[in-house]
Design goal:
Helix content: over 70%
Strand content: under 5%
Largest sheet: none
Number of domains: 1
Number of strands: 0
Order of helices and strands: HHHHH
Length: 125
């Protein structure tokens, strides 16, 4: 029972973070876009990223879809590592580098604790 509770708490935290992130990526508030422009990414990149983030949330929360869930987890992993590296190479404050890594740890916990109904069948984790 504790594993199931931990799974849903970590999954809910990732879903909440990615829902908010996806919303703001699509909405593109001026302050956020000024900060993101310093990374050199075009604004359409954030619209696309926001749609993918919201798609990942729907996929993680939906029943079944084990293969799609693996892709959603992989996309989140790539996004969070990329965010951390982007901040690190710019020598941003340590909090900007660590925050995506904390979210990554939460996401990996969700992935590791997912129930059998949300896993691909096979001999791996």
């Amino acid at each position: 029972m504790a594993v199931k509770v931990a799974y849903w708490i970590t999954t809910a935290l990732i879903a909440l973070a990615y829902s908010a992130g996806g919303f703001f990526d699509i909405k593109q508030p001026e302050e956020m876009m000024q900060q993101m422009a310093s990374f050199g990414y075009p604004s359409y990149f954030f619209t696309m990223l926001g749609i993918w983030k919201l798609g990942a949330v729907v996929t993680l929360l939906a029943p079944g879809l084990p293969r799609l869930k693996e892709w959603a987890y992989a996309g989140i992993l790539i996004n969070l590592i990329g965010a951390s590296v982007a901040h690190a190479v710019r020598h941003d404050p340590i909090g900007n580098i660590i925050t995506p890594l904390v979210l990554l740890a939460i996401m990996l916990t969700s992935w590791a604790l997912r129930p059998a109904s949300r896993k691909l069948p096979g001999p791996w984790l």
